[in-house]
Specification:
164 residues, five-stranded parallel sheet, alpha/beta, binds 1,3,4-trihydroxy-5-OXO-cyclohexanecarboxylic acid
């Protein structure tokens, strides 16, 4: 018997958590809350089920590992959701990797980086992302997935990166 499911190929999203996010739950709870990374991943997976998209989730501390994961996403994923954590503010390499893949990428942050120390207020990633969601705690990730899936379903695979 046919399942009745659409034959359209499923959207595949790579979710990347940057450095120190494995420590969520105990890391500076006044800023990042008490939700653990496992709990965030569980709610991401249940949203992915609801939206009928597939997720691959990785938490990587090293800048090089993140650059490699982004490069390897070409041809395997339709889009990237990333919390680049501290590399947001420092990494030309992560920015260049996202620009090189041309995959639509949504940048998310638990805290509102615009309201924090001045060194956190600049994102090197924002200019190559299709958008940034910052300040909603774990919901930033869920809003980010919804925004990315909506983009992929409407605009398609274009990353809309503004070249400078
Ligand atoms: C963060 C904000 C960054 O400034 C910080 O280095 C992080 C977490 C956030 O999700 O709020 O590690 O990306």
């Amino acid at each position: 018997m046919k399942s009745g499911k659409s034959t359209r190929s499923r959207i595949k999203i790579l979710v990347l958590h940057g450095p120190n996010l494995k420590l969520l739950g105990r890391r500076e709870p006044d800023i990042y809350g008490t939700t653990t990374l496992n709990q965030i991943n569980t709610s991401l997976k249940s949203l992915a089920k609801e939206l009928d998209v597939s997720l691959s989730i990785d938490a990587l501390n090293g800048e090089g590992e993140i650059v490699t994961a982004i490069g390897n996403a070409i041809g395997r994923f339709n889009g990237i959701l990333i919390n680049p954590a501290a590399y947001t503010h420092t990494s030309v390499a992560v920015r260049d990797a996202i620009a090189a893949t041309e995959l639509p990428t949504v940048e998310v942050h638990l805290s509102n980086i615009a309201c924090r120390e001045s060194f956190r207020q600049q994102s090197l990633i924002a200019g190559v992302a299709i958008g940034q969601i910052s300040g909603f705690g774990p919901s930033s990730y869920l809003l980010g997935i919804r925004a990315l899936v909506n983009h992929l379903n409407t605009v398609g695979n274009q990353s809309s990166i503004k070249r400078q």
